Amino acid sequence: MAKQADLSESPETNEFKVVPIIVSFLIAGFIGLFSETALNMALTHLIEDFGIKETTVQWLTTGYLLTLGILVPVSGLILQWFTTRQLFIASLVFSIIGTFIAAIAPAFSILMVARVVQAVGTALLLPLMFNTILMIIPPYKRGKVMGLIGLVIMFAPAVGPTIAGLILQTLTWHFIFWITLPLLAAALIFGSIFMQNVTKPTKPKIDVLSIIMSTFGFGGIVFGFSNAGEGGGWGSSTVIISLVVGVIGLLLFSIRQLTLKQPTLNLRAFKYPMFVIGLLMIIVGMMVILSSMILLPLYLQTSLSLSTFAAGLMLLPGGIINGILSPVMGNLFDKFGPKWLVTPGLVLVIGALYGFSTITIETSSAFLIALHIILMIGVSMTMMPAQTNGLNELPRELYPDGTAIMNTLQQVAGAIGTAVAISIMSAGAANFMNNVDDKANPLNQLLAFTEGIQNGFVFAIIVAVIGFIISLFIKRVKVENQVH
Predict the structure, then answer these.
(1) What angle do CA 345, 346, 348 make, to 5 degrees?
(2) Whole-number percent of the chain with pLDDT over 90
(3) CB atoms within 10 A of CB 424
(4) Nearest CA to 363 among 288, 457, 269, 275?
(5) Distance CA 181, CA 174 (A)
(6) Which residues have C-beta within 8 Å of that of residue 109, sequence separation ≥ 6?
(7) Residue-wise over 288-325: b if at least 16 C-beta within 10 A, else e?
(8) Alpha-carbon gap, residue 248 to 95, rounded angstroms
(9) Do 232 and 59 contact (CB within 8 A), yes or no?
(10) Closest Cα to residue 103, out of 162, 169, 48, 183?
(11) Taking the model in full, what pTM does it have?
């Protein structure tokens, strides 16, 4: 154990080859997250190819999120049962198998299975990546490395739709997977050579009842919100039952974790105030990003009648700038702490969202691109600095639990943000149509849809304002070897 403590003080020892380990995660993470958003651009093609409805095709996203919602909460336990190399290789193998099945999928049901297998790979990779960084990088240097992770997490989903749009113009949707397959294989080979074990498995006792409660709790909430956002509506019995089961499951899960000597997910991480604030910033950030990322493409393709490729290109500059700025913000965090990044970042986010709440069917492309760039700059200043600061406060033994909590609630927040934004958009459009005489007029339908989009962005503003108020309480966590 003393040896472990020494490593945290100076990870640049010969014990760990830090750069190859980080590069292995960056490559694997980029490809995994790229295929996640790339497939979203192919949904209309899938509806035509398989002869299915919009509500059915959305299961490709719901199933993916549901798998993450079930597996990520128990990732803290998984991290303590297997070595870093075992989990890294397992995550890539699941991703490769899932991608291969998707590439050859002759039917929707096979593609659905492929998405679940892919999600298992992602559910293993993301918590492992964050936990490994916490183990091998000292706190005063974490901002820089977390910035690189931020580059991957934001840049991959940003370029996914654009590249997918390009692929779909000339090839079939199968090639989204055929193109990523050799890249995943290369990531597996590279990681197999350079990945090292940074922790020793302690193999804590597995509490089956906790895993069942967690599955029903997080699974129920993600499923309920996803269903509401995909047209199920908040009043449907499926949504209500799912959310009730989810809340009860979470409550029982939380109570059980606080009574167990070896909890599946150690909730004592919530005793650390900056961890809680960092967690709330991640929740706010994910709700804002994912609600914006569903509203903007809909607006661009419906209100402005742009093609999928043109819509993807419009969102590309913001994604690229966010990717470039993430490491820069990481460096600034290491030097100055989170206060002077997070709060001003949220001011930019609120300003950009206010701009989006005023868009019409005549809004110029330049204005939209500028707003998206401002939004992405604000996000890069907010999420990773707050997350890194929060994780820095945790003691070493809570790293697996802290990363599991953050990654889980990130998925839940994404599902909630998307569902609420879509519901508000639909309600706003319906309300507009109720107040016009000529309901069959295509112009009125377009105006109604655009007003719904505006209302969706008002919801995002409210979330961002709450985040701004919380950010006023953020303080720099004191760490040893601090660089001033």
Answers:
(1) 70
(2) 21
(3) 21
(4) 457
(5) 11
(6) none
(7) bbbbbbbbbbbbbebbbebebbebbbbbbebbbbbbeb
(8) 32
(9) no
(10) 183
(11) 0.81
